Predict the structure.
Amino acid sequence: MFCPNCRKKVVDDARFCTSCGNALDRRTHPAPGTKPFSGKMSDLGDWLVVLLIVTVCIVMSFWKMEAKKTKALKDLDDEFEAEKSKAIKEFESIRTIDVTKDLADEFEAEMSKAIKDLDDEFEAVMKAVGDEFNVPETDASEEM
């Protein structure tokens, strides 16, 4: 630190200048022959550094937002694929049930037809036997 009155170097925590006795207000004073910092950026290089820092901050914020969007889209895609897989499994099980039901219905229809054919054959045989032995035909409702 330097005395603002005589421009001699003084100890940083001194309250008075040891050369001229001037009271120091504890602010840092520039060295003799240097211009004190006014707080203004007049140099083009200073402006370029600030512009570069601001640009980097803006680019990094956009990059971070895009990374969040990408992650959100990936999470949505994963969730969609999981739901799609679940729906396909459910559809396959329903389709299996439908196919099984269709097969059961088809089997039942074939069995009904086979039973009817057997009943017709049985009646034909019974009629032939009855004709051969001269047994009169009886109605099943009359026997009861």
Notes: The chain has two domains: 1-37, 44-143. Residues 44-133 form the longest helix (90 residues).
